[in-house]
Amino acid sequence: MITHIEKRGTKTKQRLVEAALVLFVEKGIAATTTRDIAQAAEVAEGTIYRHFESKEALATEIFIEAFSPYSKFLARVEKGEGTLIEKIEASASQFYRLFDENPLLWIYVMTYQTGEASKAPAGTATPYSVLLSLLKKAAKTGEIKNFDPVLGVHILLGMIEQPAVGVVYRELKAPLSPRLPDIMLAIRRVLSL
Amino acid sequence: MITHIEKRGTKTKQRLVEAALVLFVEKGIAATTTRDIAQAAEVAEGTIYRHFESKEALATEIFIEAFSPYSKFLARVEKGEGTLIEKIEASASQFYRLFDENPLLWIYVMTYQTGEASKAPAGTATPYSVLLSLLKKAAKTGEIKNFDPVLGVHILLGMIEQPAVGVVYRELKAPLSPRLPDIMLAIRRVLSL
Amino acid sequence: MITHIEKRGTKTKQRLVEAALVLFVEKGIAATTTRDIAQAAEVAEGTIYRHFESKEALATEIFIEAFSPYSKFLARVEKGEGTLIEKIEASASQFYRLFDENPLLWIYVMTYQTGEASKAPAGTATPYSVLLSLLKKAAKTGEIKNFDPVLGVHILLGMIEQPAVGVVYRELKAPLSPRLPDIMLAIRRVLSL
Amino acid sequence: MITHIEKRGTKTKQRLVEAALVLFVEKGIAATTTRDIAQAAEVAEGTIYRHFESKEALATEIFIEAFSPYSKFLARVEKGEGTLIEKIEASASQFYRLFDENPLLWIYVMTYQTGEASKAPAGTATPYSVLLSLLKKAAKTGEIKNFDPVLGVHILLGMIEQPAVGVVYRELKAPLSPRLPDIMLAIRRVLSL
DNA sequence: GATGAATGAGTATTCATTCAT
DNA sequence: AATGAATGAATACTCATTCAT
What we know:
The structure is a homotetramer of 193-residue chains.
Chain A: H1 2-27, H2 34-41, H3 48-51, H4 55-79, H5 84-101, H6 103-115, H7 127-140, H8 149-168, H9 180-191
Helix pairs in contact in A: 1-2, 1-6, 4-5, 4-6, 4-7, 5-6, 5-7, 7-8
The first copy, chain A, binds a DNA duplex (21 and 21 nucleotides) through residues 5, 8-9, 12, 33-35, 43-51, 54-55.
């Protein structure tokens, strides 16, 4: 059957991505071999190269595939209507929603981003870039005061992202979304809003 | 001449550690080759093995050497006198002091710790373990209220550690210690203290 | 063409075994490098590891492959019908037959056996174990007299195996099988049979 | 004290030889590292090179030191007075005497001799060369009959040397010298003398 | 004589990638 | 699309040997 063959192909790629993701998070990209990936996905090693140009390309594709929709979401939030705190909440809420759907993927995204620095094309909206622009604007309008925006961004980023690390290391129970109100409360206090 | 007296052996080991540290942070342990290290330290590859049992042992030694004194410091803080906020400030202050002395080393310690999970012997005091015990005690005495201590720990950890990441990626200017008052203010607000 | 059909994989493994055998006998296992083997077999060094887990595994497989059928043969002789001298003759005759087919292989087996002691699983029939059991039984039935069986076994083993060494060092002309009658005559004299 | 220093040197060389001998027999020359030897002899690795030009030279010296007096003994026996059987007995007797003094050394000599072929200078009297010349002469004088001398030599060599192997593998109890009469009886029977 | 740090060539083994089937 | 044998460059690590002290 034709559809069977079609699906086989699609499925194979999906299996490769899923297998690779687990391994990349577990042992890091460099320490994961193509053999590991092929075995976990139950395909031949050569098959990886039917779907991806290289191991690196596979790693990058997983990152981009996840990050780029979120980046677009962040760009929309930045340009949209709303107060500072509403925009921060929208960003964090979406991050936790995505994280809860696939925690492994987002831990991968978080470490990939810092580990390999900015493999994301320059100009892409990142949590850092968007938060920074929001805080700077709010400082200008007097919405917040007495704060170095760059320091503020890092404090906020830490508050939002570190709980995700907690979930992966089983210190915090999934899902993360229900924690949003508590975290937002803390953020509001920090910003005195 | 004074410099003439320095032992060759000690110097070589020190050069290896310094070269490895830079490379480990830059590209990760797995992606750093013994050849890289030897070239950077300007010694023969074989020389690495006169001072360390393996590349892994070198990586572990760098971590332990840095982390274990800080861990002992944390343990002393935990058992010592003082309010919650004083203890948090003491821990963070010491961390920033050490970080400012050698930012690379402490970025390495932070990533090594999470990357390879708990290569630190079980029972060792970590920022997470100490903060958790402090918050739990404070919750019991009513010093703080309405907070899941585990979530609280991750929020605080994020607030303290993320600025260090900012320094390494050149978003925040070193040194970090002068930022302590601002960060402690934010923490006090979060804890409503 | 018929030769076209031969599987590449099988051939490669066979070429590796043959190349390794020559080198192992010539210079010993330890002194033979994987590079030597690969060059002699005209394959890449990495190819060795597609067929064998390690150099040691290759060495062991060659030994087992040759020795284990002979060991089974010895076990059958031991349990079968016949006089002492008939059984000794059967064992020696089979050894010489195999030796004449591939002298190198059997020199390898002889040295491997003693060199690495008993890599052969315990309980395997060896020339020593079988001859010893035969001599002990014959001593009990009175078939032979006045002899320490253990000393006797070593004398007989030396008589049977040392001529094979002579062939390899070109002191005796191959094949060895035609020498069997003379050697058996000597053995009969020693045993006074 | 002067003599103390002198003896220290001599002792060091002796300790090196003894340590190396054990290791060479245990694991083979190639598989024995200079580090192994230095550790076993409790000296620094560099010290080996005060006493020997190379690891190979050390291995060769051990062999020559043991073998060459025996070789001279064999040459004297060959040229001396006596019947065939007396000369064989003298050779074997001396071999067993030396073997009993230091079994390890003589196992080493036996394997070194065959392993590295003829590192002994050409023209040196070896058990093989002497036995061959004796048997050939005896065949000419009619002392023995109906025998290919080369085959005969290998049979006799096997009968004499294999028991030594038995001792090393703990199948036969040391010392070997008391076995000489039984072995000579067997040899006499083989030669019909 | 003795040391032990240092070397550099070499070792077994791994691995991302290719390619004929 | 998929396979898996083959590759060759690279890897962590070893080792006999040297040499300043």
